């Protein structure tokens, strides 16, 4: 041991005479004395292994001495306690970093994306990632005003994917945003919906507690009448947006889900040290958990349906593609009693789920005492009113995904027919033959998902207002019913005659 090290140890209140085992231990370790006093940075960057060992032993003795306790021998118990103290210090530092809002947001984004991607079968699915924060998208839309074709989102979704020969149209966009009820955010929803409507590409994002004017969704669960919230004047823009024709292209998920268990030595150990992320001796703030945007759970279900059936329609209900399985469940003891944390922010009753769905949201509902949650509904943000069943059906995301995909097919067919000089009867016959491939009278669930149409027809007519173009009208009747009624959906497109 160097003289400097002895002096520092003595000053801490523990002499070498009081620690004879330390002297004995160090006398058996042949280490080169460092040429100059070491800093923490130097110890881990440029010193030799022996120098690092000497520094570590010196630090260990300081830590033991700082306790002020008499130590007869440097045994395993003493060393383990010193290591435990080090773990506690590191835990406090790591805990502060991990619970900082920007760090949590970053971890949530990457873990959420990993959640969706790791549950995706990529046999016939492609995922593209675009780094575009919400404030940047708002800024881009503000720069172009009402000239939306000049916006970056329009160029990305419409120009490069939908209106480009040989390109693959985008089925849907997942926006890792949390929308609130402020004017800039509602304006963002409106512009996104118009871009996505032009591209027949629904966009799914989310709302959080701030949208409802509460500090947490747990507070929302105590509200007896959620619809009454939206009668306030501050939701005027929201109500106006919901009545717009393009708002059906927006889906707003809600109720975040748990992405991982809090770190603890037993159930979720860190790799390099004993890290206790939460203080279980105190009431646990739900904000300390790592929550994921529910859009990633919805994305996983969309991809699963598309990979299995070729259509993103099997996405709602516990037995029809809406289940989100294998979620983390936090089991812990607090105050001497066993506790369990649900895998979602709030528990949603059946009544409240219906109320939220009718208000324009897609809530993720956890099952009590289970490790899964379910999207029971998939309503778009649009308010379809109560008079027209066709409008109500068209405002449901599964039917929108179905019709949008037919729009993509029709766009490709239209592009390939340019210059063919075919008569309208020939085009109609070809389109009829094409669409009948997706029609079946079968009644099994598998048949309905693989062949989503119960009936379909195509009509091709001359367009009197646009010479040189045909109007192509496709009428489809999905197998799925709405309140016991068979509903027809129509899709109109324009095709050049030559």
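^ structure tokens above, recovered residues below v
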């Amino acid at each position: 041991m160097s003289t400097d090290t002895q002096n520092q140890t003595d000053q801490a209140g523990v002499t070498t005479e009081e620690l004879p085992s330390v002297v004995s231990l160090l006398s058996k370790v042949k280490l080169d004395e460092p040429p100059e006093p070491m800093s923490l940075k130097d110890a881990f960057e440029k010193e030799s292994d022996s120098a690092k060992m000497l520094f570590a032993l010196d630090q260990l003795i300081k830590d033991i001495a700082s306790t002020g306790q008499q130590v007869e021998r440097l045994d395993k118990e003493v060393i383990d306690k010193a290591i435990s103290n080090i773990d506690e210090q590191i835990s406090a530092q790591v805990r502060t970093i991990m619970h900082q809002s920007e760090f949590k947001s970053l971890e949530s984004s990457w873990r959420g994306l990993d959640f969706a991607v790791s549950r995706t079968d990529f046999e016939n699915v492609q995922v593209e990632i675009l780094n575009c924060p919400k404030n940047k998208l708002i800024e881009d839309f503000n720069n172009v005003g009402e000239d939306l074709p000049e916006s970056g989102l329009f160029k990305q979704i419409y120009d490069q994917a939908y209106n480009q020969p040989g390109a693959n149209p985008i089925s849907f966009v997942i926006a890792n945003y949390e929308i609130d009820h402020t004017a800039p955010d509602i304006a963002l929803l409106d512009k996104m919906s118009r871009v996505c409507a032009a591209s027949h590409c629904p966009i799914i994002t989310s709302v959080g507690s701030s949208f409802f004017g509460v500090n947490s969704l747990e507070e929302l669960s105590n509200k007896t009448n959620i619809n009454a919230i939206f009668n306030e004047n501050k939701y005027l823009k929201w109500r106006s947006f919901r009545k717009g024709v393009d708002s059906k292209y927006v889906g707003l998920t809600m109720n975040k889900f748990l992405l991982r268990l809090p770190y603890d030595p037993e159930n979720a150990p860190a790799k390099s040290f004993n890290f206790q992320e939460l203080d279980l001796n105190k009431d646990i703030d739900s904000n300390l958990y790592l929550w994921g945007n529910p859009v990633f759970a919805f994305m996983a279900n969309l991809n699963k349906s598309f990979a299995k059936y070729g259509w993103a329609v099997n996405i709602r209900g516990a037995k029809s593609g809406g289940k989100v399985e294998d979620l983390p469940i936090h089991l812990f003891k607090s105050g001497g009693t066993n506790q369990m944390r649900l895998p979602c922010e709030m528990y949603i009753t059946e009544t409240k789920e219906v109320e939220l769905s009718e208000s324009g949201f897609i809530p993720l509902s956890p099952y009590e005492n289970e490790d899964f949650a379910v999207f029971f509904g998939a309503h778009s943000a649009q308010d379809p009113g109560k008079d027209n069943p066709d409008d109500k059906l068209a405002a449901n995301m599964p039917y929108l995904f179905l019709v949008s995909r037919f729009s993509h097919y029709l766009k490709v067919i239209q592009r390939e027919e340019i210059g063919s000089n075919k008569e309208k009867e020939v085009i109609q016959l070809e389109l009829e033959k094409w669409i009948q491939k997706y029609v079946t009278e079968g009644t099994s669930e598998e048949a309905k998902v693989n062949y989503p149409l119960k009936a379909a027809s195509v009509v091709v007519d001359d367009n009197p207002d646009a010479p040189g173009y045909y109007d192509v009208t496709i009428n489809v009747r999905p197998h799925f019913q709405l309140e016991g009624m068979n509903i027809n959906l129509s899709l109109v497109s324009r095709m050049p005659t030559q």
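Confidence is low (pLDDT under 50) at residues 1-22, 481-485.
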